[in-house]
Amino acid sequence: MWCCRAVRYASSGTVRRAASSDASAQNVCLSLVRNHDKENFLCTLLLKNPERRSALAVRAFNVEVAKVSEKVSAGNVGVMPLKFWEDTVTRLYRAPDGDARTVPDHPVIRELHRAVREHKLSKRYLQRLVTARANSNLHFVTVKQLEDYAEQAVASVLYLLLEVHGTRNVHCDHAASHLGKAQGIVNLLRSLPYQTRRSAVPIPQELLMAHGVNQERMVRNRPDDKGVEEVTFALASVAFRHLETAKGLIRTVPRPVRPIFLPCVSIERYLHRLRLARFHLTDASVMRTDSLLPLVLYWRKLRGNY
Length: 306
Prior knowledge:
mainly alpha, Farnesyl Diphosphate Synthase, 0% strand, globular, disordered N terminus
């Protein structure tokens, strides 16, 4: 009897340690997304559990890969870590069901491994999040190339969130594609004020040439430079068209998955501020934190208005 009790106590301790490890991994994912992807973090919080947990795992994986790509721009520092994440995706799909010992002991990977098993997430979307950032010195000749990049680096996350909700639907994917392109372009616009004169500004060359603007002028971003204003307007217009298309398509998607498209709200509000500032990217009203966003997101979700 004593032996049976000992086994039972040991087993109980193992369960407690496993539960503690799971909670720790969840907290790591939550903190990563909150600190590095604030607006998407607010949107993800409004998803219901258990889907919210898996959504945070997907977004945390995306944050980890994005952080590595920022290092690549400084040299080859990030190449090996990117290879690590690429190999990790492969190992996630080779791991036997339920066996986490075959994947790296990393909190984000543990959470992602659980999400992959539970929701049968598509390998290609995780791979695209890595390969899209293999070259962080982004150089786009055409707007189409920028849209393709946004499709891989941003829309892939939305496709995964749809799968987390058990939805594989061509209409949902179409809406996610347009929203991903809009968000990717807005992310680029937001990054421009933080570019240095040594950086290659990731504005499509066809837009710069069409308006007679060079990269140095985009970096300076003077309020009285009409050429820079026209380039910014042209790019913001592309984002706005994709956003409007996505919003129209969202009306056709199943109601339970519509909260996935809450990033529409933050993109819409940013583009509105940018228009009011006459497309001056470094205007204080454009660069400030949107303090009302949490309340607006909650209200729009309640009303189902995306």
